[in-house]
Amino acid sequence: MSRRRALRLEDRIREVPDFPKKGILFRDITPLLMDGEAFGECVGRMAGLVRGKVDTVLSIESRGFIFGSALANRLGIGFIPIRKQGKLPHKTYRMEYELEYGTAAVEIHRDALKKGARVVIVDDVLATGGTMKAAVQLARKCGARVTSILFLIELAALGGRRKLRGYPVSTLITY
Ligand code: AMP
Predict the structure, then answer these.
(1) Residue 63: active-site member
(2) pLDDT digits (tens, 9 = 90+) for 68-120
(3) How many angstroms from the chain centroid is the CA of residue 136?
(4) 45, 63, 118, 161: which one is catalytic?
(5) Could you tell me if the CB of 171 is within 6 A of ligand 1?
(6) Which of 94, 97, 106, 121 is most buried (most C-beta within 10 Å)?
(7) Could you report the per-residue pLDDT of 29-42, keeping only the tens digit for each?
(8) Domain definitions of the chain by residue range
(9) E strand or H helix at 123, and its extent?
(10) Model's pTM, two decimal places?
(11) What is the DSSP string of 11-54?
């Protein structure tokens, strides 16, 4: 096995207890991003899962953008941002959802996607699945087909996959 394949991505994830509030064990991805080899491995593995199967990459503000834009660039395809409420300048669709800590709304430009486009949606962490479910609904509202969903990390105990039933979900690290 080469040194590259032996790289354990989970060794680059830092656990921060009680952030952003008491009771949350926050998975900090910044040590992974700082390590060029680990970040490259991560994007390469994501690309390998969807290469040739998708037309566009969607991802969710803000940590999703780090992986989504790198992935789109690696695949040589376009990138579409799903942003927090009030940030996109043109006409949008909006979806409200519940977070592990709080509630929020996300938006997409109405003209961002072609009807029938095959999209992959990328985010850093699957917790309760509420954020990704809202993103899926936005993509579908635009007429796209969600053919793949990717996460760097899945927090399996929170059961987020149940909210995404019927969609192919892949994760690189499961806790
Ligand atoms: P959810 O909608 O519950 O699946 O939450 C997913 C979003 O919240 C992701 O975009 C993550 O960035 C963030 N998030 C939720 N829980 C955690 C956690 N324990 N550690 C790091 N990020 C988290």
Answers:
(1) yes
(2) 999 999 999 999 999 999 999 999 999 999 876 678 999 999 999 999 999 99
(3) 11
(4) 63
(5) no
(6) 121
(7) 999 999 999 999 99
(8) 53-174
(9) strand 118-126
(10) 0.95
(11) GGPEEEET-SSTT-EEEE-HHHHH-HHHHHHHHHHHHHHHTTT-
